[in-house]
Design goal:
It comes from Aliivibrio sifiae. GO terms for molecular function: dioxygenase activity; transaminase activity. Keywords: Aminotransferase, Dioxygenase, Iron, Oxidoreductase, Transferase. This is 2-oxoadipate dioxygenase/decarboxylase. The chain is an alpha+beta fold. The protein has one domain: 2,3-Dihydroxybiphenyl 1,2-Dioxygenase, domain 1 (Roll), CATH 3.10.180.50. About 30% of the residues lie in helices and about 25% in strands. Strand 3 and strand 4 form a beta hairpin. About 40% of the residues are buried.
Length: about 260
Amino acid sequence: MNNVNSLFSSLWQDYITRLSPSAGRVHQLLSNGDELINDHIALRTFNLPKVGLQTLAAPFLAIGYKACETYDFEAKKLKAQHFEHPDPNAPLVFISELLVEELSAETQDIIHGLVEQVPAHYFATSDFLSSGRPWTLSFEDYQVLAKESEYASWLAAHGYGANHFTVYVNQLEAFAEVVDVNQHLRDAGFAMNEVGGEVKGSPEVYLEQSSTMADKVTVNFTEGEFDIPGGFYEFAKRYTLPNGKIYTGFVAASADKIFESTDS
């Protein structure tokens, strides 16, 4: 698990520093001084050869993760896959990719221009997973992307890093239900994602999820600095399958609503 812990430590430090500064406060509010279990992280990319889903998956496969279920998000023009490690204590990994060819010509041109700036050796080590944006971007182009795809503009602006970490609600002593977590955070001043209801999923699909709305973070563009949505914190409660095992997959209808936590 040393390699796993090292990789996730790097992702966490980048996440709380650059993408979701409020995550540290959420962590304190829920942990009671104990270490929280991270259910999963999510990563975003484009489905272009150099930077596609498999490029992001490679560092995880190298440390023992195995590819599992795939997911389609037709309305958002995304495909995704999740990965599991043989050690059940290792976090799950959810990687999605934007189907660039399904976007407008103008948006495709911008995205191809970004990816062309990235040298092939950039992906030689796992460091790229928490290294941020490997290209320059104008705020004008960011706004063009945002009009068509929030996912595209988020990825273009932030590059590589954990879009979110996820508290495993099952291990919390103070809160038995996702709604209790939500209320505790709401009372502390956090805005929760209520798209599709404050709790996505149900015991019937063996997974319940919720999330904060993304922090606003300052990002450098060629025209200067602008505040835009960054990362958010998710909360997941998993239920036992008929075979007696905890469900380890994802529910596409719920994940679709979680994506909207980064909408401005």
